[in-house]
């Protein structure tokens, strides 16, 4: 699905709308899978960014140190409204859920022996895995459209899952390779335009 519509400009959300959207995601996304929720909210529902922009931001967010979803919130916020948007994205994804997490931690300490609570948490975790898988499949489909990104993706998979090489070493090798390939592709596209 391509949300890039050349005939009508994309909406520019207010800073309050950015904070509210990220707060909603942070407060309703239990057990992980936040990048999947972000894609649904910002690409499919609100159309604030395109799928291609989102997946590029996700790849960038995962290559930086720190929490991936906070990095992604900063990137999306910056893309939408610059530095203030980045701040609202980061604050929205972190602050409201932090207060809820503190309250839930206190409650969980009282209910830690409850079998029902453990079953509910396992169900929430399974749903989060499904959302993450959906985002991963979309990214893989996009990469599989061209031979070089497909080759990089395949080599990364082989290095991590079959050869069981350390993640840091694989990222240290594949990230510069991927960036170099993207840079050459952009340079070539710019020269032909």
Describe the structure.
There is one protein chain. This protein folds into 2 domains: 1-143, no CATH class; 146-193. It has 7 helices and no strands. It is globular. With 193 residues, the chain is mainly α. It comes from Xylophilus rhododendri. Its main location: membrane.
Cα-based radius of gyration, to the nearest Å: 19 Å
Tell me the total number of β-strands: 0
Spans of 5+ residues with little confidence (pLDDT < 50)?
Answer: 1-7
Largest sheet: none
SS field, number of helical segments: 7
Beta fraction: under 5%
The shape, in one word, is globular
Span between termini: 25 Å
Percentage of helical residues? over 70%
Strand pairing plus helix content: what structural class?
A: mainly alpha
> Could you state the order of secondary-structure elements as H and E?
HHHHHHH
Number of domains: 2
Q: Indicate the mean pLDDT.
A: 86
Short description, anyone?
With 193 residues, the chain is mainly α.
Q: How would you describe this structure in keywords?
A:
globular; mainly alpha; about 80% helix; 2 domains; about 190 residues; disordered N terminus; 7 helices
Topology:
Elements lengths: L14 H14 L5 H12 L5 H13 L4 H44 L3 H29 L3 H16 L4 H26 L1
Membrane topology: Multi-pass membrane protein
InterPro entries: CHR_Transporter, Chromate_transpt
Subcellular location: Cell membrane
């Amino acid at each position: 699905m391509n949300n890039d519509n050349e005939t009508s400009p994309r909406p520019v959300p207010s800073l309050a709308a950015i904070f509210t959207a990220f707060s909603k995601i942070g407060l309703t996304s239990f057990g992980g899978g936040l990048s999947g929720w972000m894609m649904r909210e910002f690409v499919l529902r609100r159309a604030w960014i395109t799928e291609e922009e989102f997946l590029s931001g996700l790849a960038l967010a995962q290559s930086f140190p720190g929490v991936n979803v906070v990095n992604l919130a900063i990137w999306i916020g910056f893309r939408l409204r610059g530095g203030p948007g980045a701040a609202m994205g980061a604050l929205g994804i972190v602050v409201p859920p932090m207060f809820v997490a503190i309250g839930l931690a206190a409650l969980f300490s009282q209910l830690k022996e409850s079998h029902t609570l453990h079953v509910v948490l396992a169900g929430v975790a399974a749903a989060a895995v499904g959302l993450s898988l959906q985002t991963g499949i979309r990214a893989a489909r996009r990469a599989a459209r061209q031979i070089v990104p497909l080759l990089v993706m395949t080599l990364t998979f082989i290095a991590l899952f079959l050869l069981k090489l350390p993640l840091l070493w694989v990222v240290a090798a594949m990230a510069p390779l991927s960036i170099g390939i993207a840079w050459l592709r952009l340079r070539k596209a710019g020269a032909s335009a």
